[in-house]
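Support reply, case 0932

Customer input (verbatim):
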Amino acid sequence: MEIFELGPLFEEVQRSAVFPDSKTFVDCLPRHGPERILAAYAQAKAAAGAAFDLPAFVREHFTAPRAATPDVPAGEDIEHHIATLWGILHRPPDKPVAGSSLLSLPHPYIVPGGRFREIYYWDSYFTMLGLRENGDEAMIQNMTDNFAHLIARFGHVPNGNRSYYLSRSQPPYLALMVELLAEKQGCDAYRRYRTPLLAEYAYWMDEIAATRHAVALDDGLVLNRYYDQLDTPRPEAFVEDEHLATRSAQPRATLFRHIRSAAESGWDFSTRWFADGATMETIETTEILPIDLNCLLHFLELILARAHEDTPVQQHRFRLAAARRAEAICRYGWCESARFFCDHRLVTGQPSERLSLAGVMPLFFKLATPGQAEAVMARIRDDFLKPGGVVTTLIHSGQQWDAPNGWAPLQWLTIRGLENYGCHSLAAEIARRWIKLNRDVYARTGKLMEKYNVVDPTLEAGGGEYPSQDGFGWTNGVLLKLLRGYPRV
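Our regenerated output:
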């Protein structure tokens, strides 16, 4: 039995805000078995009545987790600081612990930092970019092997290695991780990871279980969406989800599925997912075919084709699948009126005109035509470029994946996408502004942050369900990659 299955105890702890962050309780380690804790809870409540001290009961029966990023001495060179952080964010192989929500991993890994005390799927690719710059090929291998282990055990890579994340995955970056290994190890890497890559593809394409990620369109093409397998409040955000349900007109189960599915996207939360483009009460994630998810799956299909060079039938299968998905991306993801790549909304049958940096993914994967790429470049230069880098969306909503925030992975995807189409000066300018912002915030605070305010670099980033975290895995990785790739900007 998990902490979030402790019925009235779990709900009372979360609703009473014993911990300021809802995630803390589900990361706690029970000191006794669940039956013993529940019996003690019932007995203590009955004996104390209104005087029952819930926080004291929790302290007696649970061990609270520590933040993943203790203070690091400020003032050192930023690259040396990152090297120090790798050691702090490093975790050894896990030993299974009874009652823990942590899903044990057989190899060492890097966590993001702060409240994120476990490995996260898409974060890890961008962390690996910095590990490569530090020459830590062993850790890249270890983390990739951990994801292969999770696929072998659960049929997919969970959002993070916690039991409460098992109902969903995250953006499928395993193929990019394998490509990163192949740059050093050659084609053997494709064949070595063929089995987990196939299993991940089966998960997203509903080939083994009906996960409902794949959507057949009227013309016979198939695109994918995010779709969490549960329709209940997230244990790690129980109170937040319950509160939203009181304000939304949607059925509770429908609302919770949309919330969870947005968490699967990694963009939790953004107006990308809102029917009215403004308020989270209208979230409709499963009604959207995300442009970035489908570009990632196109790349997975290409890598699977490479992994099957010794099996012509399978190789042809995946080449054909990649070609058909590329056709679908250009047909359903290009918004001519906006001159930008966008998500496709199933409700309207049209591309969304709510622009976001997800629209750079066809450039990152070289799926755009030269004309489309030129239009995207112009939009990036004219609308998304801000003093601190590129902004996530053009909407100021109070959500963390909207303006004024910028995120390290989106800077990298944009910069590489622009470089792929010869827009070197704009790519270098984004890199320059992002590096400067990271350096300036580090000089002020001694920290590297999860996200940044790119519109007004003198202010902190905001929004979201929790305070901005420091550490921070993917910021460290992307910054180090840019510092080495653009040393004179």
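We compared this against your earlier run and they match. Two observations from our side: Residues 312-333 form the longest helix (22 residues). The mean pLDDT is 96. Please reopen the case if you see a mismatch on your end.
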